[in-house]
Write a structure and sequence with these properties.
Elements: E1 17-19, E2 29-34, H1 44-58, E3 67-70, H2 74-86, E4 90-95, H3 100-108, E5 112-116, H4 121-136, E6 139-140, H5 147-164, E7 172-175, H6 181-193, E8 198-204, H7 209-212, H8 245-252, E9 258-262, H9 264-278, H10 284-299, E10 305-310, H11 332-339
Parallel strand pairs: 2-10, 3-4, 3-6, 4-5, 7-8, 7-10, 8-9
Antiparallel strand pairs: 1-2
Helix pairs in contact: 1-2, 1-5, 2-3, 5-6, 6-8, 9-10
Length: 347
């Protein structure tokens, strides 16, 4: 019998680890951590709760103060949940290129969404959030540099992984990066508690910011500008057009063992195959991370345990290329099935 939660925020974390049976090689144990089981459907629920409650403890977020943040969607959705439950107004800045489902979900939860021009990319929406925070004296969540983001993963995600793979039994941990919170927060704990676990980080083949070896450029004010290796890619939430501070920390602290690049079509294919063959419904960034995990499995020693992070659900990708071949109307095969019995047909 489960114990009732005091409110929705108590359901953040403790997401399941699930074995892959059909898509994995026979000689390797491949698992996924399903962050879609968080209440708002993504890993970003963790950082949203962590950042807000850290700010409350520090007194940097005042009762009733407006929270503002730049997001590709999932952080904003998580923040909208937390702010709704705790009673904070929320304003989100988001580049117009991200899927419309995301902005509608945030507005449904009470947030205001300020769109920024797509050509200005992620660095543009971040600059807009900073501008709004300064003008209106709002609390800026700063997900890309806020240590509370990484701390939340050190305190929740990492212990969950260690519990699932005790005594150093996890050989590879595979993740993408966006804010870098999951990467930094989990990898530093693995380094200490499971030092033989190799940390594998994946990024888009046409936006291989870390793999390029080029340092992140900044503006005169110290804000990140578009990295020269960035090109638009379909993995929303993965790899913005700049290397965040938290991600750079993971690099400088030598927490990464291997980099794997993933092509957009492979991310889309893997997301679809997870649904069709494993019954796991996830987004494009999850498909990308899974594609990288499959590459690791090809060369991993027999019997290796590989854990892949799946950051979110597929429902917020309905208007993206992930669903472009999924029709709303019946196909010829479905019409033929309908006509195979005499009743309940359309005229």
């Amino acid at each position: 019998m489960s114990t009732p939660f005091d409110n929705i925020l108590g359901t953040v974390g403790n997401t399941p680890v699930v074995k892959i049976n059909k898509l994995a090689p026979d000689n390797v144990n491949l698992y996924v951590k399903l962050e879609a089981f968080n209440p708002m459907g993504s890993v970003k629920d963790r950082l949203a709760l962590g950042i807000i409650e850290d700010a409350e403890r520090r007194g940097t977020l005042k009762p009733g103060q407006t929270v503002v943040e730049a997001t590709s969607g999932n952080t904003g959705i998580g923040l909208a949940m937390v702010c709704a439950q705790k009673g904070y107004p929320l304003v989100v800045t988001m580049a117009e290129s991200f899927s419309v489902e995301r902005r509608r979900l945030m507005r449904f939860l009470g947030a205001k969404v300020v769109l920024t021009p797509a050509p200005l990319k992620g660095s543009g929406m971040l600059a807009k959030a900073v501008e709004l925070a300064k003008e209106h004296d709002w609390f800026l969540a700063r997900q890309f540099e806020n240590e509370a983001n990484a701390d939340m993963h050190s305190n929740t995600t990492a212990p969950e992984i260690l519990s699932a793979f005790p005594n150093g039994s996890l050989d590879y941990w595979v993740t993408g990066y966006g804010t870098g919170g999951t990467l930094k927060g989990v990898s530093r704990v693995l380094r200490k508690e499971s030092p033989n676990t190799k940390v594998v980080v994946c990024e888009p083949a046409n936006a291989d910011l870390l793999n390029s070896g080029t340092a992140q450029p900044v503006t005169d004010s110290g804000a990140p500008s578009t990295h020269p290796s960035f090109n638009p890619h379909p993995m929303q939430g993965w790899t913005p057009d700049f290397i965040s501070k938290l991600t750079d920390d993971a690099v400088s602290q030598k927490l990464i063992d291997q980099l794997v690049t993933v092509a957009g079509p492979d991310a889309l294919r893997c997301s679809r195959e997870l649904a069709l063959q494993e019954g796991i419904f996830c987004g494009i960034s999850s498909g990308g991370t899974f594609a990288a995990a499959l590459e690791i499995c090809k060369t991993a020693p027999a019997g290796s345990n590989v854990l892949c992070m799946l950051p979110d659900t597929g429902e917020r990708y309905l208007s993206t290329p992930l669903f472009e071949e999924i029709a709303a109307d019946m196909s010829d095969d479905e019409i033929a099935l309908s006509q195979s019995t005499p009743g309940y047909q359309f005229d």
